[in-house]
Amino acid sequence: MARSFLQAVATEEVAPPLRVVQMEGVAVLKVIKHCKEFSPALVTGQLLGLDVGSVLEVTNCFPFPIREEDDENEADGANYQLEMMRCLREVNVDNNTVGWYQSTLLGSYQTVELIETFMNYQENIRRCVCIIYDPSRSNHGVLALKALKLTDSFMDLYRHNNFTGEKLREKKLSWVDIFEEIPIKVSNSALISAFMTELEPDSPVLQCDLDRLKLTTAPFMERNLEFLIECMDDLSSEQNKFQYYYRNLSRQQSQQQTWLQKRRTENMARKAAGEEPLPEEDPSNSIFKPIPEPSRLDSYLITNQVANYCNQINGAAGQSFCRLYLTKALHEK
Questions:
Q1: Closest Cα partner for 42 from 13, 6, 69, 10?
Q2: What is the spatial order of strands in the sheet that 20-24 belongs to?
Q3: Which tens digit of pLDDT belongs to each residue from 129-186?
Q4: Which parts of the sequence belong to the MPN domain (predicted)?
Q5: Are 149 and 182 in contact, with CB atoms under 8 Å apart?
Q6: Model confidence pTM above 0.90
Q7: CA–CA dist 113, 253 (Å, integer)
Q8: Which of 63, 151, 285, 324 could staple 45 via S-S, CB 3.0–4.6 A?
């Protein structure tokens, strides 16, 4: 059955959900090289590739220049991106923006700035991701590379800037529903795979395998615990804000009840005297002005960050126990 043009357009607009981020090996190496060169400073860069069905292909990338603290000229950064993409197009390299990458320190990336960057990208790109690379975790023999995107329900709520408790309960949005992690698949062409096979050493043990056997995890655990304590302090401050809000709300409701009781008593006296009753609500009175509820976005992000630090501590502690038991068994032999 033949379809009309409008039906065809409407069908094409329904895109399948993003299932996997497929990164070329050269793009992964560029991201790692850029982040490690400037570590512990945080850097960022542009991701280039193609959006094919449920797969987002990242074929290339380029770094953004590091801006000085007193440099507020954003036009230079935009011109740099356009010039880089024009040069890549001239040499027949994919120049379609599919997101950006950034480095992080011990997984401390869940911030309002990251959400705002996502929203800015979403205005021009239908689907985009952020590749997070953590050099500090990768030093322990783990490729700390992950792809993130915002959930659709959270983006809809963020556009309306309504993070009250009532709205969050209505949308059934919890702190785990802000970011969605997309699996990353590293792919290489057959020629590169064959070349890498030729470069493989005769020994099956690589340096990253030896890094996993290091017993010194104290600095990593200490930094995670320090960051975790800071997040708990921030979370406590956020809870104090809500406690202050609910105390003021309870006080206002008590004042409203007292005022209404007084007004009703006065109206009963006026009715008995044959006079018109007064309205039971007075908008000009300060006790009837609604108290703005604090946004729960910051507390949600801090809770996400606390969970991330706890998972990192749990994983590092579990691996340390495994290495200790392995070392003990080898020592007894």
A1: 69
A2: 179-182, 145-150, 129-133, 97-103, 44-52, 55-63, 20-24, 184-187
A3: 999 999 888 877 678 899 999 888 888 888 888 788 788 888 888 888 889 899 999 8
A4: 21-154
A5: yes
A6: no
A7: 36
A8: 63
User: Which 3 state secondary structure label does DSSP give 200?
Assistant: coil
Q: What is the pLDDT of residues 253-309, one digit of tens each?
A: 888 888 888 888 888 888 888 778 777 776 667 777 888 888 888 888 999 899 888
pLDDT of residue 5 exceeding 50, the answer is: no
What sign for the dihedral angle of Cα 111, 114, 119, 120? Answer: positive
Question: Rounded to whole angstroms, what are the CA distances from 49 to 46, 128, 142, 146?
Answer: 10, 10, 25, 17
282/287 Cα distance (integer angstroms):
9
**Portion of the chain with pLDDT greater than 90, in percent:** 12
Q: Measure the CA–CA gap between 304 and 312, rounded to whole angstroms.
A: 12
Which helix (H) or strand (E) covers residue 35, if one does? helix 25-37
Tokens of 22: 């497929």
Residue 181: CB atoms within 10 Å:
12
Q: In whole angstroms, what is the distance from residue 60 CA to residue 294 CA?
A: 42
Nearest alpha carbon to residue 118 among 133, 135, 98, 134: 98
Provide the angle, in degrees to the nearest 10, between the axes of the packed helices 297-332 and 112-122. 110
One-letter amino acid at 83 equals E
Does domain 16-212 correspond to CATH entry 3.90.1480.10?
no
- For β-strands 179-182 and 145-150, DSSP reports them as antiparallel
Cα gap 180→15, rounded to integer Å:
17
